UniProtKB/TrEMBL annotation:
<comment type="similarity">
    <text>Belongs to the polysaccharide lyase 1 family.</text>
</comment>
<dbReference type="InterPro" id="IPR012334">
    <property type="entry name" value="Pectin_lyas_fold"/>
</dbReference>
<protein>
    <submittedName>
        <fullName>Chain A, Thermostable Pectate Lyase Pl 47</fullName>
    </submittedName>
</protein>
<dbReference type="Pfam" id="PF00544">
    <property type="entry name" value="Pectate_lyase_4"/>
</dbReference>
<feature type="domain" description="Pectate lyase">
    <location>
        <begin position="3"/>
        <end position="125"/>
    </location>
</feature>
<dbReference type="InterPro" id="IPR045032">
    <property type="entry name" value="PEL"/>
</dbReference>
<keyword id="KW-0119">Carbohydrate metabolism</keyword>
<dbReference type="GO" id="GO:0005576">
    <property type="term" value="C:extracellular region"/>
</dbReference>
<keyword id="KW-0964">Secreted</keyword>
<dbReference type="GO" id="GO:0030570">
    <property type="term" value="F:pectate lyase activity"/>
</dbReference>
<dbReference type="InterPro" id="IPR002022">
    <property type="entry name" value="Pec_lyase"/>
</dbReference>
<dbReference type="GO" id="GO:0000272">
    <property type="term" value="P:polysaccharide catabolic process"/>
</dbReference>
<dbReference type="InterPro" id="IPR011050">
    <property type="entry name" value="Pectin_lyase_fold/virulence"/>
</dbReference>
<keyword id="KW-0624">Polysaccharide degradation</keyword>
<keyword id="KW-0456">Lyase</keyword>
Amino acid sequence: MDLSHVHLAGGELTKWQTYDGLCDIKGDSAAITISHNIFENHDKTMLIGSRDSDGSSETRTITVAHNIFDNCAQRLPMARNAKVHVYNNFYDSKDGFYDQKYAIGVRFGSLIYAQNNYFTNGVKISYKCNKGTIFESGNIDLSKKGSVCEKLTKPPFEPPYKFELLEASNVQKEVNQNAGTGKLAVIK
């Protein structure tokens, strides 16, 4: 499954509740890509695995790439029992829509491979861990408290696909130009 080039927001303009479940992935979901989207003005934005007994990191594989997370409080994503490749995302929280808690939640049984993401100083904590595992490289982290995780010294898995990494310093410009609705290139 692929969720791509969508603008997902909560609040008055969209008449959508802003608290929970903007993009949740449960069960033994496999080979899901969430890319080039805008997530904004939401609290519990993206859940991967609803409880510690839900799913397995052997089968649940998710990619979260080239997205904007703007004024979202937490779960950007929050993962349980999953292999999640998180790369080239832009994280910002400046308007106080919600009290920003953390960006990426590394929970029970999760293996997170985070590469070349950009966290502004509006983000309180870039990574928050609770019985999960993370490897990070190439990120720009200006968050207030940085990471509160023990980090691996090598990636926990190799993504089974080819991809090109942007330098983290170029992520904000690239995702602003290409994320959200109406940004697909037309090839004739």
